[in-house]
Amino acid sequence: MVSREHKRAVLNEKLQTLRSITNSHAVNKTSIIVDASKYIKELKQKVERLNQDIAATCTQTSTDQNPLPGIHVTVETLEKGFLINVCCGRSCPGLLVSILEAFEDLGLNVLEARVSCTESFRLQAVGGEDGEDEASESIDAQVVKQVVLQAIKNWGGPAHQG
After folding, report:
1. Is residue 46 part of a domain?
2. Is residue 131 part of a domain?
3. Angle at 149 between CA 148 and CA 152, to 5 degrees
4. Burial degree of 81 (CB within 10 A; 0-12, 13-18, 19+)
5. How far apart are CA 101 and CA 108, in angstroms?
6. Each residue's pLDDT tens digit, 110-158
7. Which of 39, 89, 118, 127 could disulfide-link to 59, CB 3.0 to 4.6 Å?
8. Residues 6+ apart with CB under 8 A from 122
9. Are 22 and 31 contacting, i.e. CB atoms less than 8 angstroms apart?
10. What CATH number does residue 135 fall under?
11. Residue 152 to residues 2, 25, 115, 155: CA-CA distances in angstroms?
12. Is residue 66 helix, strand or coil?
């Protein structure tokens, strides 16, 4: 059985860790916890501001007259493959599947991806081509972008709900 002294020591150690993480100068338990609560609120506000900044960036109009308002698609050529970014200021259920199917149809393997589908849709993927044949050499960033845009149109576009 664990002694009270041991429990107290463990609790004090955890409070000191919390104090350290939150940069608190408080001495008593209550003040440390209040400082930690304030710190968490500040972090939440920072996350919200970052999400708003990202959403604002993603909903800016594209310079190439994107036919799908509210959805921003960019494709950059990498040494071996493409960096594909898709942003929409709202959630888009099923859109990820449509885009991944388009990658597969094009012969692109997803080498790395980051996706957020909660309050807004964001996809950043690195796609590499399947083979080294002549057909894969004809794929360029513009082709990839057109295929992604077509997948979005096939999905249902910005009016799609469901």
Report:
1. yes
2. yes
3. 90
4. buried
5. 10
6. 888 888 887 788 898 888 876 554 444 567 888 888 898 888 888 865 4
7. 89
8. 54, 58, 85, 86, 87, 88, 114, 115, 116
9. no
10. 3.30.70.260
11. 59, 52, 16, 5
12. coil
Q: Is 156 exposed, middle or buried (0-12, 13-18, 19+ CB in 10 A)?
A: middle
Question: Whose structure tokens read 């990202």?
Answer: 54
Say whether pLDDT at 6 is over 90.
yes
Neighbours of 123 (CB within 10 A): 22
Gap between the Cα atoms of 111 and 129, Å rounded? 10
Same domain, 78 and 139: yes
User: DSSP letters of 79-122?
Assistant: TTEEEEEEEESS--TTHHHHHHHHHHHHTEEEEEEEEE-SSSEE
Q: Give the pLDDT confidence of 14-36 residue by residue, as tens digits.
A: 999 999 999 899 989 999 999 99
Give the whole-number percent of the chain exceeding pLDDT 70. 79
Residue 160 lies in a domain: no
